Amino acid sequence: MSKLMLRRVQSTPCLRRLFLSLLIKANWPELFRAKEETARRFYSLRKVGIDLEKLAADLQSQGTKSFDESWQNLLGAVESKGKELLQLPRQ
Question: Helices marked H in 1-91 — which ranges?
């Protein structure tokens, strides 16, 4: 990623690491087109006052909570099914 691009987009360190990892894995011409478009969109969001760091933190928090709820439901279902299976007569 060019230094100019990093200066133009005031991204979080997490987003910078993401861009750098994409540079390593992606097809260079496609990546630069996508990176420039992404940078423009991030810049536009910041320009209208959207706090990307707060947005990212909120999404992470909501995602963690949602995952935990799903995980607890799965564990409950497995436990319930296990109890049902233990009550079946053995052959």
Answer: 3-8, 13-25, 28-47, 52-87
Radius of gyration of the chain (CA): 22
pTM (2 d.p.): 0.48
Please indicate, yes or no, whether residues 75 and 88 belong to a single structural domain of this protein.
yes
What DSSP designation does 90 have? P
Tens digit of each residue's pLDDT (9 = 90 or more) over 61-90:
999 999 999 999 999 999 999 999 888 887
Residue 32: give the domain boundaries: 1-50
Domains identified in the chain, total number? 2
Q: 43 and 9 in contact (C-beta within 8 Å)?
A: yes
